[in-house]
Amino acid sequence: MYSFMGGGLFCAGVGNILLIVSTATDYWMQYRHSNNYMHQGLWRYCMPAKCFTHTDSIAYWDATRAFMILSLLACFLGIIIGIMAFIHYSSFDRFDKTFAAGILFFISCFFVFLAMAVYTGVTINYYGKRYGNWRFSWSYIIGWVSVVLTFFSGIFYMCAYRMHECPRSSNPQ
């Protein structure tokens, strides 16, 4: 049980760090415009010498930002509850922290998956038709890696929950 919880905490910790880096950096997409390479993230777009804040409130950027922030919060809460379960901190007797941490990691995975799907769909439809020389960049790739890590942290915590529940349910009272 503890090895599953440790693996879940490791995946969640790395996934949360990658979520922070992916959300905060400006390399979600790179493209060439007027013989210059430019890049943009969720908050800013950068030209060769200078970066500018996105001033337009475009729905897919707002949705992607919101889902990424919700994912960060869910993953952070899952880590806190997962640590409490790991050290057997018991403030609630009827509250299974292992199960709650697993559910929060799955919620985090769902939110980051939604963010990445919205950004991918709109970017491909918009930039794919207008620009020929563009590509997704490393911040975007880190976002997809965090989807996988938060998913596996949820899997690890659900396995730990099942291992913890099986001996309890097999003892008749």
Automatic annotation (TrEMBL):
Keyword Transmembrane: yes
Transmembrane regions: 7-29, 66-87, 99-118, 138-160
Compartments, as annotated in UniProt: Membrane
Family matches, as InterPro entries: LMIP, PMP-22/EMP/MP20-like, PMP22/EMP/MP20/Claudin, PMP22_EMP_MP20
PROSITE patterns to which the protein is assigned, alphabetical: PMP22_1, PMP22_2
GO molecular function: structural constituent of eye lens
Keywords: Membrane, Transmembrane, Transmembrane helix
Source taxon at top rank: Eukaryota
One GO cellular component term noted in the UniProt record for this chain: plasma membrane
Predominant location: membrane
Recorded family membership: Belongs to the PMP-22/EMP/MP20 family.
Protein name: Lens intrinsic membrane protein 2.1
Organism: Cyprinus carpio carpio
